[in-house]
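Quick note —
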Amino acid sequence: MIDCPPDFARTAADYARHRAGFPVELLDRLSARGIARPGARVVDLGTGTGSLARLFAQYGCEVTGVDIAAPLLEQARRLDREAGVQIAYVVAPAEATGLPSGAFDVVSAGQCWHWFDRPAAAREVARLLVSAGTVVIAHFDWLPVKGNMVEATEEIILRYTPTWPFADRAGLYPQWLVDLQAAGFTGIETFSFDVMVPYSHEAWVGRVRASAPVAGSLDPHAVRRCSEELTATLREHFSEDPLTIPHRVWAVTAQTRP
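Predicted structure written out below.
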């Protein structure tokens, strides 16, 4: 594992500028299941710069975002203004939000469940939800394929952060189902789909720089060297600009007992 949790506050600007947010197709699918609906009260844990929270807000939900990193929430508010949505934000850990019990129809967690104390977070989710409320845990991961830019990128990252545990993954998280079952949730279902995301060379270097094992973990000198090595690899071996990067969306939904 990475020796300590990443500090995404150190890379808030890059995170907001370069990390592609969840695609709207995720909310389309949640809407078809009656989860994302106008007026639904949603709290988004580990909201970061508000990628998933904004999608819920754009679907007419009443959204509160929670994160421990105030600089990320400042970026989220800026992006909300640009998107023309209003979201309330709270600086708090996912395991102890301080929000009222039984006040939310949906609790979501996008790209962050692995950073939480998962049993404690699951208990907090159950506390926040109304009877028969819904939890959504979602991920949006790049996909390493033999010979592609993602594979080359992960090789570079591992030279700087050898303990990074998330290389060469398929973007699937069956262990989260166990977490929800252990916490008493029912009706557990999963779905996934793949999308291609365009990234300019500059944006891809920024995206990687904003990741947990790079600027979230390394000192500035190492971050700069990692970015320089990635830039050189792009120039020498992946000259197409923009690149198209394969990603997988994976989600699990479950309900509290009525």
